[in-house]
Amino acid sequence: MIFSVARSPLRATELPVPEPRRGQVRLDVQACAVCRTDLHIVDGELGDPKRPLVLGHQIVGRVNEVGEGASRFSAGERVGVPWLGWTDGTCRFCRSGRENLCDLVRFTGYQIDGGFAEQTVADERYCFSIPEIYSDVEAAPLLCAGLIGYRSLVLAGDAERLGLYGFGASAHIVAQVARSQGRRVFAFTRPGDEDGQRFALSLGVEWAGSSTESPPEELDAAIIFAAVGELVPVALASIAKGGVVVCAGIHMSDIPSFPYELLWGERTLRSVANLTRRDGDEFMKLAPDVPVRTVSREFRLEEANEALQHMRAGDLRGAAVLKLA
To answer: What is the distance, to the nearest Å, from the Cα of residue 53 to the centroid of all Cα atoms in its chain?
Structure first.
């Protein structure tokens, strides 16, 4: 069974899984985490996806066939497939270590069929080995929520006081990493989400409140995971001079105008675009050392639309994961 995007909601179809081409592996999907980017694609907020398209870019699977020229993995090995699915390797961004900005980049579950399916194929160069301490369901959210969160944390610099706006799949992972590094973490949820605030506090954050509230003290950096442009000036107003606000989402609603004084004082506003394989290698080594523990709600493959609806409603604690095996 494959859940593909031809219209919203997703529909179940029976499509043949392509044979692995040169350098590819075919996988039996064990689990695939659901990402807000999947929701943006279904809702038409990200333009020009492949159609029909199989969503899913946080894939944990076992290799069942190896294509010609593929040698990194063997049949039976467990691997993870992330959002970054292919780069040309020759453009100025690839040659300067910024393959996440490749001019011809292709993404899993967007231009390449992903993991809302029983089987999928992937370029082995962009797959990762999964730490053995994680089950399939535990590992799946690491492959985007964890990786994008990790890249965002790195770009936030060495901030001691870190604010996280939107406490979902990424933030609950980043909070654990930041705490292990000795940082003080402040969590912001949507107004009225007391359960989300309790969840954040259970993971060791110092303070949790509504995004409409000011933190108890100035922050050194903030990461915005919520796809809400209105939070940008809110976060800028919460950080100290010299601080940084990182926008972690691939899509965000329009950012309203704000007075220059919110940016003045050498504050920095920047975005995060995708990930690199180096990010993946670093984070997969780091996660077991923290150790990062992912919190997920499991759904069956045929419940993919239900999982997306829970994400749209914002009533998930941690991540949503489709479990296939």
So the answer is: 19
Q: Could you give the CA distance from residue 100 to residue 297 in angstroms, rounded to a whole number?
A: 29
Tokens representing 220?
A: 């050194």
How many whole angstroms separate alpha carbon 274 and alpha carbon 184?
26
Contact 160, 219 (CB under 8 A): no
- The tokens for 274 are 């995708």
> In this model, does residue 159 exceed pLDDT 70?
yes
pTM for this predicted structure: 0.94
What percentage of residues in the chain have a pLDDT greater than 90? 89
HEC letters along the chain: CEEEECCCCCEEECCCCCCCCCCEEEEEEEEEEECHHHHHHHCCCCCCCCCCEECCCCEEEEEEEECCCCCCCCCCCEEEECCEEECCCCCHHHHCCCHHHCCCCEEECCCECCCCECEEEEEHHHCEECCCCCCHHHHHHHHCHHHHHHHHHHHCCCCCEEEEECCCHHHHHHHHHHHHCCCEEEEEECCCCHHHHHHHHHCCCCEEEECCCCCCCCEEEEEECCCCCCHHHHHHHHEEEEEEEEECCCCCCCCCCCCHHHCCCCCEEEECCCCCHHHHHHHHHHHHHCCCCCCEEEECHHHHHHHHHHHHHCCCCCEEEEECC
- Are 19 and 70 within 8 A, CB to CB? no
The Cα–Cα gap between 107 and 124 comes to 14
Provide the pLDDT for residue 17: 75
Give me the phi and psi of 267, to 5 degrees please. -75, 150
On the 0-12 / 13-18 / 19+ scale of CB atoms within 10 A, 259 is: exposed
pLDDT of residue 1: 54
81 has a pLDDT exceeding 90: yes
Look up tokens 């993995």; give the residue: 73
Closest to 116 (Cα-Cα) out of 41, 168, 170: 41
